[in-house]
């Protein structure tokens, strides 16, 4: 029996008469093939990537496992082809999740004029142009009583550079829903050094990917997203390996043709700087890395 | 007495009734202030940059020295305000010069709709979108008899990714004007390890700048160019320090507002990969770095 995912923070949602992703209870994620070639393009990417021997294992771990395609009963009630992927959140109980679309440009060189105009408008209205990335959605686990901090899509759509900085701080805070106006102080970033920092934290993983993007010329990843995920309880116990960085959404991947993906790399480098800034700032105050300012 | 520069490879050229740069015989370059605020914007950048104490000397060396503005008799015959800058080619006799405009996007976030449309068209028609940079002009010294290889602007305007790869090879070849069709082989890249490689070569200098761009959030350099310069005779004698990498054209620099210049960094990283590829390939054959393929 398939059901809708519990922890989706962005993208199409399955509903009455609406196609959206489904999951089973064995850790698989069913993504319906989208129209106008996007579905087949994404299948083509997964087929190519799965069989490409030039992808090091250290990089492959950032991508969901691909199990092929299957026709299943969709959320609309009728049979529809789906990609069968690893359900990234299946191992989690109360995952904090953030979806970040990378690149200041979300359209590839061969896109149609109409599609370019549509993307360019969104890229300019969001933070994609100024920051090289935009937040597409997030949820931050607080506790069993309060549940999750999960800002509405209408707010996410309007986020500017200052909101992005704030949301990246809230993502690693024990008080994500605290309004600065009321408390007199912002999110506490108490989990920053656990989640962003450390040898297996998000920053270390992003730097590993960055080194690959400085050299790889196989694929260009337009409109692709990072999924950051961690389990607050495990993070507090120091279970680092559960802090996950994954890449998703490959409907607009193109051949690299011997050129690096400078659009993705630029956005990734910008995101790295944002996260480094948060770490530097929280380390200054908490002194957790030994560099206490006296 | 001012005169037109001998080694200009791109940009407006001074002529009868046309404003363009001039030089004197004491090593100064006079750049006329352009209209529609560009001139004053570029002056504002040079004033800000010259007095900014947060720019390390290791980075300042990549920029022309700025001496202020001065009203001089322009190439049009009338008085006009000029920026007075260091003449970068004054120390050279027969410089090989290449001008490369960096960034897949040459317009800043606050540009007008009309200006964005104009730039986007050029960025898409050139290699800026696919490669993250485009070649704006070059001259390669051959010898006193043959003079320079200097492709016409009409060819430069039409260069695609393969032409760019070829021109980057020709720039460091003793036979830049050889047509592959006739000789059966391409440019020899005989100067690649001298000019691109080595501890003071172009690649090392670009990597130094890249490290700064991964961290600096002061300026965003839209539509800014690299000028690569070397003197063939000196390069052959091992006079490394004369291989120059300079940044020019700052009419579209904007405030970084705490964000890295991901557009410039992406293009710079792409250019670094192109140059690394040429070095790797020429080293494979010449064995100059000891890694001969057996």
From TrEMBL, chains A, B:
Chain segments annotated as coiled-coil in the UniProt record: none
GO molecular function: ATP binding; inositol-1,3,4,6-tetrakisphosphate 5-kinase activity; inositol-1,4,5-trisphosphate 3-kinase activity
Matching Pfam families: IPK
EC assignment: 2.7.1.140, 2.7.1.151
Transmembrane segments: none
GO annotation (BP), single: inositol phosphate biosynthetic process
InterPro entries named in the record: IPK, IPK_sf
Enzyme class: transferase
GO cellular component, one term: nucleus
Keywords, ordered alphabetically: ATP-binding, Kinase, Nucleotide-binding, Transferase
Catalyzed reaction equations: 1D-myo-inositol 1,3,4,6-tetrakisphosphate + ATP = 1D-myo-inositol 1,3,4,5,6-pentakisphosphate + ADP + H(+); 1D-myo-inositol 1,4,5-trisphosphate + 2 ATP = 1D-myo-inositol 1,3,4,5,6-pentakisphosphate + 2 ADP + 2 H(+)
Keyword Nucleotide-binding: yes
Family: Belongs to the inositol phosphokinase (IPK) family.
Biological function: Inositol phosphate kinase with a broad substrate specificity.
PANTHER family in alphabetical order: INOSITOL POLYPHOSPHATE KINASE, INOSITOL POLYPHOSPHATE MULTIKINASE
Name of protein: Inositol polyphosphate multikinase
Organism of derivation: Mikania micrantha (bitter vine)
């Amino acid at each position: 029996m398939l059901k809708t995912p519990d922890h989706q923070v962005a993208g199409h949602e399955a509903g009455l008469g609406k196609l959206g992703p489904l999951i089973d209870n064995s850790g698989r994620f069913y993504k319906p093939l989208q129209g106008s070639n996007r579905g087949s393009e994404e299948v083509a990417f997964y087929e190519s990537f799965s069989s490409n021997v030039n992808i090091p294992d250290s990089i492959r771990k950032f991508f969901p496992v691909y199990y092929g395609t299957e026709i299943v009963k969709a959320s609309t009630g009728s049979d529809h082809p789906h990609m069968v992927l690893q359900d990234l959140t299946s191992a989690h109980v109360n995952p904090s999740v953030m979806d970040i679309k990378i690149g200041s440009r979300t359209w590839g060189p061969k896109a149609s004029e109409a599609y370019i105009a549509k993307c360019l408008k969104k890229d300019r209205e969001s933070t994609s142009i100024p920051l090289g990335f935009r937040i597409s959605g997030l949820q931050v686990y607080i506790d069993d009583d309060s549940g999750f901090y999960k800002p509405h899509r209408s707010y996410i759509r309007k986020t500017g550079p200052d909101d992005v900085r704030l949301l990246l701080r809230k993502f690693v805070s024990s008080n994500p829903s605290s309004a600065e106006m009321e408390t007199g102080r912002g999110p506490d970033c108490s989990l920053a050094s656990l989640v962003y920092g450390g040898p297996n934290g998000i920053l270390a993983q992003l730097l590993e990917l960055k080194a690959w993007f400085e050299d790889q010329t196989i694929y260009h990843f337009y409109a692709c997203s990072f999924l950051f995920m961690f389990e607050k309880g495990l993070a507090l116990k120091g279970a680092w390996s559960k802090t996950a960085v994954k890449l998703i959404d490959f409907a607009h991947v193109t051949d690299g043709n011997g050129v690096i993906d400078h659009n993705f790399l630029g956005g990734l480098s910008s995101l790295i700087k944002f996260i480094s800034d948060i770490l530097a700032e929280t380390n200054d105050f908490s002194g957790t890395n030994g560099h206490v300012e006296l």
